[in-house]
Design a protein that fits this description.
Number of domains: 1
Bound molecules: S-adenosylmethionine, 6-(5-methyl-2-OXO-imidazolidin-4-yl)-hexanoic acid, iron/sulfur cluster
CATH architecture: Alpha-Beta Barrel
CATH class: Alpha Beta
CATH topology: TIM Barrel
Shape: globular
Largest sheet: 10 strands, parallel
Amino acid sequence: MTEIRHNWTVEEILDIYNTPLLELIYKAQTIHREFNDAGEVQVSSLLSIKTGGCAEDCSYCPQSARYNTEVDVLKLMTVPEVMEAADKAKDRGVSRLCMGAAWREVRDNSDFDRVLEMVKGVNEKGLEVCCTLGMLTENQAQKLADAGLYAYNHNIDTSEDTYKKIITTRSYDDRLDTIKNVRKAKVSVCSGGIIGLGETTEDRVKMLQTLSSMEIHPESVPINALVPVAGTPLENQPLVPIWDMVRMIATTRIVIPKTVVRLSAGRTEMSLEGQALCFAAGANSIFAGDKLLTTPNPDFNADMEMFRLLGLTPRKAFKGETQPVSKIKEKEIESI
Ligand code: SAM
Ligand code: DTB
Ligand code: SF4
């Protein structure tokens, strides 16, 4: 039985990342099978409920108000609009709806009240509800939990050092504080990052070291390949080689064995064979639907055909990612 560790060192993780590729995939797949059902893939749908005009300066993001991109600034969607999108996602057999807002942080105003209504409505439809709304206080996290929020996405993106170069309007600690607030509210944590920002292998490994050293591992870890968007400071970044994506996914699987590893942004640039290698390396989730937040994603039917080819099946909602959050011992929460 492989032990779940919270004390991985950067050196150990670096050694894993640099293992000969086929051996790395074998190790990751072996660990994946020990902890998870390797034939099952969790499918989430993304919905941008508040698009563009964000106050932050994240260098990768087309939604920052500071960059001249083609993203239109839109107001917060209405509750009926969101309910319609949720019905569509449910009809497609998606188990989770992730609602994203281009906000620096949540404010206690009528927009937040509306988001709480959205969370309640989507939850009542039997879908797992996820939100990604920027920074949260403990109280806001609790309100979301009370409304029926299942998971909160808040990425740490890269290493602390590189974070400072990519974003100047908030700190790594701000990110970690929000994750703690989400934990305290007993909401499932989704936190990962982006590769292809110009970071080194060591930065990638340091990000995984931070995630794996959390007292309770994130229940899901999205690994995004940068989608370089015209108008952003990172528009000319070269595309991430598929081999880096495979290594990153395999390493995540090995150091955080029970988590749902999400093969996230960047799939439109990946071949089916490349994605198959990512699943072999332990990825067990995707975002499906023709759009991510503002950039394209593979066609939904093409993804279902990929599942058929690879013999993968979408996971049902509420199957329990790792440990149901409600069962996390009070003691563990208090010690965070
Ligand atoms: N504003 C909230 C926040 O920053 O947490 C939520 C939305 S934000 C768009 C969610 C995540 O999308 C970011 O943390 C980042 O990891 C990812 N992301 C944004 N732009 C991206 C891009 N061009 N390529 C890949 N991932 C991207
Ligand atoms: C995550 O890690 N990736 C998703 C989701 N969490 C919110 C977002 C990817 C965004 C890609 C750029 C865009 O479409 O705007
Ligand atoms: Fe705003 Fe989130 Fe984009 Fe940063 S990543 S600019 S916080 S929407």
